[in-house]
Amino acid sequence: MYIKRAIEETVLRLSGMFPVLLVTGPRQVGKTTLLQKLMGPERKYVTLDDPDVRYLAKRDPALFMQRYTPPVLIDEIQYATELLSYIKMGADRSGNKGDYWITGSQVFRLMKNVSESLAGRVGIVNLPGLSDAEIYGYGSAPYTTEPERLMKRLGAVKERGLNEIYARIFKGSMPALYAGEADWETYYRSYVDTYLQRDIRDLSQVADEMQFYNFMTAAAAHTSKPVVYEELANAAGVSAPTAKKWLSLLVSSHIVALVQPYSNNILKRAVKMPLLHFLDTGLAAYLLKWGGPEVLERGIMAGAFFESYVFSEIYKSYLNAGKEPPLFYYRDKDQKEIDLLLYQDGTVCPIEIKKAASPGRDAVKNFSVLSPLGTPERFGAMRELKVEIGTGNVICMARDLLPVDGKNWYVPAWLI
To answer: The pTM is what?
Structure first.
């Protein structure tokens, strides 16, 4: 069963803008299925998972390109990056948009070659796991905190309670778990084995797969926490430089996302550590050996998983629209925290994430640290510009969309 993907419009739009379209993302999120659904009958399909085809592509890429003429979909391009320069020549020769569709999972190996060979010729789409909008069949749009947008969603989105939310958190975001009768534990065991054996084993900087598995587990235990490399290293039994290197592999393969802190010359007390979120809460639950949604909801990591779930839904809403997620977080040396900040169009909107059904007005007390405020340091010379403070949200287990005060709103988690 095909689950309609929110990113379909973005894929077709970029295919009409560039001669080459690259769809990347974690393993088994449906990259090939998506493109096969969208491609017309004239487009050829070839996968480099086939050893004979891969041998031809690596040994004689020119002959491969004669055999598989555009329009073509080439699956798992990272296995024969020799093809990229020939794709560049073919794209320059024809001048047609969307001639070459390619997919790749091993982003850490692929992106350097793509940027060198196909600069200016490739549109890149990052396909995440399934979002709530895709699973439950309603419209997807980049998340904003504005109450007008949220009110419009009230009639389109079905209310879900605590047990349903945690069943979704525990199950995760992999299409195979929603399209059939795949056993959860068996699926994730196979997923981890495949990731370790086909992606990680090939990397010279990872000599011990079991140690890397332990590191993945340690990272899952730190979801929704600021990154302290010494802590990760101690938990996994590796050095801090190794932990930093291995975390970059998890980021590159879209297993985790790092949220940068919002800091500038005005907010001098803000910490500089990024915040770690596992993007598939089902994979994190598997790694940490949680036995089911009920025990997860009652367990010590219930709040952390809830935060990562909310973050990943907001994060995916931007990726599916083909946009860079404009997400930061705030934490200072006085331990004042704001879980998420949306920064766009000169406005920063604070978001607090609470598992509680009635968080109370204290949930927004740290929003006051944002005034006065300048732009983030990553914007360089613009950082002295003042920004507006927009509508704040407290995303929680409330039953309804309700105002906290004149500037902030309680938002049910099922509404995001």
So the answer is: 0.92
